[in-house]
Design goal:
Oligomer: single chain
CATH topology of the largest domain: D-Maltodextrin-Binding Protein, domain 2
Strand content: 15-25%
CATH class of the largest domain: Alpha Beta
Structural class: alpha/beta
CATH superfamily of the largest domain: Periplasmic binding protein-like II
Helix content: 40-55%
Number of strands: 12
Number of domains: 3
CATH architecture of the largest domain: 3-Layer(aba) Sandwich
Largest sheet: 5 strands, mixed
Radius of gyration: 33 Å
Distance between the termini: 52 Å
Order of helices and strands: HHHEEHEHEHEEEHHEHEHEHEEH
Number of helices: 12
């Protein structure tokens, strides 16, 4: 087997073949002549052939020696290629990036991502997948996902890295002339109103509920959905209130007869994070993808 052989002897053999002189070969390899002779004897033993013999004009390679040297040159070139750094030219990369994300972030980033890719990485493609778990650790570890992006990633397990890619204030969205908008006691009106909740993923407490809970208060959920396209349709013809990131609220209001209102009490901003596994941390193309997402 190849692992039973001393591959360090191959450069020695090639140097001897190049020089056909032990003294010059030893000098080239920065070895003493006795050390070189010892290495040559090991080679002869491994190949069961003298490899190099004397002639009237000095040393010459045996037939087997010449064949071994030719194969050694090819092998050393292949080994050298293993250690050659990956060419950092994103324009020539051909691959599909798998991104697990919420629909909110997908809609937010898709235009810029495609625009940048068209200019910088014309041969890459993107496969967006819905997030089906709070933290897709297994998919990131296995390489099924290259990256995952959401606003609820916390307390990550070992092996995962994270970076904030966006921060957004929280606002309320409801139909125009909603009683909440004109109320003098907005907190009371907020608690009295039915609420629409985008539950992605289900069961994860939202910032507004944490803030209310700190005051021993809670709101009444009337509708929960995991679809980011549903809320405008439900809000326009009802008294429902949606609490969501301002960027999402602006999108809803630009296409529907809705209005943005402030939250009834201070709420921490939403932090959208991307997470990835250590296995892809130093991959050049993945570094490029993370850079684009971080600048969204």
């Amino acid at each position: 087997m190849i692992l039973s052989k001393n591959l360090n002897l191959l450069p020695t053999l090639v140097a001897i073949a190049d020089e056909l002189n032990l003294s010059r070969a030893a000098e080239k390899l920065r070895l003493t002549q006795p050390a070189l002779s010892h290495a040559l004897n090991k080679l002869r033993s491994e190949f069961d052939d003298p490899l190099l013999v004397r002639s009237s004009h000095g040393f010459v390679l045996t037939d087997m020696g010449a064949a071994v040297v030719e194969r050694a040159r090819v092998a050393l070139q292949k080994i050298e290629e293993v250690y050659t750094p990956q060419k950092k030219d994103i324009a020539s990369i051909q691959r599909t990036f798998v991104i697990a994300s919420t629909t909110y972030f997908e809609q937010r980033i898709i235009r810029k991502l495609l625009r940048v890719a068209e200019k910088q990485a014309p041969h890459v493609s993107f496969d967006f997948r819905p997030l089906v778990a709070q933290t897709p650790r297994t998919e990131l570890e296995s390489g099924e996902y290259d990256i995952a992006v959401a606003a609820y990633f916390k307390d990550l397990p070992d092996g995962l890295r994270t970076k904030i890619v966006a921060s957004d204030t929280q606002v309320c969205v409801a139909r125009r002339n909603h009683p909440y908008g004109t109320s003098r006691n907005r907190l009371k009106a907020y608690l009295a109103s039915p609420h629409l909740v985008i539950a992605v993923p289900p069961g994860v407490p939202q910032n507004i509920d944490v803030a209310l809970g700190q005051r021993k208060l809670s709101r009444r959920w009337a509708v929960a959905t995991s679809n980011f396209m549903t809320p405008p349709l439900a809000l326009e013809g009802s008294d429902l209130i949606l609490t969501c990131p301002s960027g999402l609220a602006e999108t809803y209001c630009s296409k529907n007869d809705l209005e943005i209102y402030p939250t009834p009490l201070p709420v921490p901003d939403i932090e959208v994070r991307m997470i990835w596994h250590e296995r892809s941390h130093n991959d050049f193309s993945c570094q490029w993808l993370r850079g684009v997402l971080a600048s969204s």
